[in-house]
């Protein structure tokens, strides 16, 4: 799916990165805990969050994320959007909750980031 497809599915608004909407995305992650994102995401993906602070941008930069989706109609400040532009991120906002956004994207074919569990925890 492309980021443009995601925008249609989520009825979202583009905040920056309009020139990269045809970028393909294959997986998504949803979290407000950036430590979890850092621990479990190991590929270029989309992050769905409600956090609008600079930690999200640092996490996106470290993981080379393609797109940030702000849930619940959240819109980060201009300083955050300027930094996102510098990082080459597409940033969108949707009025949907994070849970609903995940469900809509899953229904449209986008899957979660596969998690590799240690063998000792595989039986959970």
Protein described:
The chain is built from 5 helices and 6 strands. The protein has 124 residues and is an alpha/beta fold. It has one domain (3-112): Udp-n-acetylmuramoylalanyl-d-glutamate--2,6- Diaminopimelate Ligase, Chain: A, domain 1 (3-Layer(aba) Sandwich), CATH 3.40.1390. Strands 1-5-4-3-2-6 form a 6-stranded mixed β-sheet. The model has no long low-confidence stretch (mean pLDDT 92).
List its salient traits.
124 residues, Udp-n-acetylmuramoylalanyl-d-glutamate--2,6- Diaminopimelate Ligase, Chain: A, domain 1, 6-stranded mixed sheet, 5 helices
List the helices and strands and how they pair.
Elements: H1 3-10, E1 13-16, E2 27-30, H2 34-40, E3 46-49, H3 54-63, E4 67-70, H4 78-87, E5 90-93, H5 98-107, E6 111-112
Parallel strand pairs: 2-3, 2-6, 3-4, 4-5
Antiparallel strand pairs: 1-5
């Amino acid at each position: 799916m492309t980021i443009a497809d995601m925008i249609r599915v989520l009825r979202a608004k583009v905040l920056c990165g309009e020139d990269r909407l045809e970028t393909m995305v294959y997986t998504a992650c949803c979290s407000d805990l950036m430590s979890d994102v850092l621990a479990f995401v190991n590929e270029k993906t989309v992050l769905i969050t409600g956090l609008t602070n600079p930690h999200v941008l640092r996490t996106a930069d470290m993981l080379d994320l393609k797109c940030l989706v702000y849930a619940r109609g959240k819109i980060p400040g201009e300083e955050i959007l300027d930094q996102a532009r510098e990082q080459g991120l597409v940033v969108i906002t949707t009025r949907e909750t994070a849970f609903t956004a995940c469900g809509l994207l899953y229904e449209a074919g986008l899957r979660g980031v596969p998690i590799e569990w240690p063998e000792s925890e595989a039986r959970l």
